[in-house]
Amino acid sequence: MRKTFEHEIQKLKDGILEMGSMVEQAILGSVETLKERDIPRSHAIYDNDELINEKRFEIENAVMIAIATQQPMAHDLRLLASILEVAGELERMGDYAKGIAKINILIGEQPLLKPLVDLPIMAEKCASMLHRALTAFTTEDLDAARAIPAEDDEVDALYTKIYEDLIAFVIKDPKAPKILDRANRLLWAAHNLERVADRVTNICERTIFIATGSMEEIDISDDETSLPQ
């Protein structure tokens, strides 16, 4: 029975890693299509979010069956409960990528307010944090789980720089056609990525919970870089 249960747990971990890979690709792809102004590909990313949702439901169903049939205790129960939480976090991150794809669709043929330089860097950083956080989650790597959230400061700094650059463009040419709309759409794309990094921290907290049995809230606030959301 124990060997069967361990096999089921491994399948669930593999499912989380697979779902994480789908989300990583959506995050990177949504920003790439925005940069390249590839509207058809943005439509595809938008539509493919349904696959991420389906993966979440598949994982949740498997977790519920495992709880009902195996009656796990202690560590195993914490792990299964955390897998449910992480699947939800990943689904929400997929929504953020979907939102960036929608921004590109809404912009349409209109030129971007400014070339995208920092936004792709931000996306790469978020995807890297997510990938490593999920690896730490599946291996219960406490050191990594406690270290990764500190990198959120780098994401916040990029968000602040994007915000300041967009404000500078608006101030420089306030009468440009739809300049506020154009600035806001890029700012919302950056905001979505900033939220991805925040949810990575939630995953790291779950890793700590599985391994130690206690919930540690990791403080990632930074008054110098935080902006009204």
Characterise this structure.
The protein has helices at 2-36, 39-70, 74-107, 118-139, 142-147, 152-172, 179-212. With 229 residues, the protein is mainly alpha-helical. The longest helix has 35 residues, at 2-36. The N and C termini lie far apart (49 Å). Residues 223-229 have low confidence and may be disordered.
Feature tags:
single chain, 229 residues, mainly alpha, Methane Monooxygenase Hydroxylase, Chain G, domain 1, 7 helices, 80% helix, 0% strand, elongated
Topology of this structure?
Layout: H1 2-36, H2 39-70, H3 74-107, H4 118-139, H5 142-147, H6 152-172, H7 179-212
Helix pairs in contact: 1-2, 1-3, 1-4, 2-3, 3-7, 4-6, 4-7, 6-7
Give a summary of the structure in a few sentences:
This protein is an all-alpha fold. The chain has one domain: Up-down Bundle (Methane Monooxygenase Hydroxylase, Chain G, domain 1), CATH 1.20.58.
Q: Name the CATH superfamily classification.
A: Phosphate transport system protein phou homolog 2, domain 2
Please count the helical segments. Answer: 7
Mean pLDDT: 92
The secondary structure category is mainly alpha
- CATH topology group: Methane Monooxygenase Hydroxylase, Chain G, domain 1
CATH architectural name: Up-down Bundle
Enumerate the spans where pLDDT stays under 50 for 5 or more consecutive residues: 223-229
Backbone shape: elongated
Major sheet attributes: none
Order of helices and strands: HHHHHHH
N- and C-termini, Cα separation: 49 Å
Count of separate structural domains: 1
Proportion of residues in extended strands:
under 5%
* CATH class identity: Mainly Alpha
Cα-based radius of gyration, to the nearest Å: 19 Å
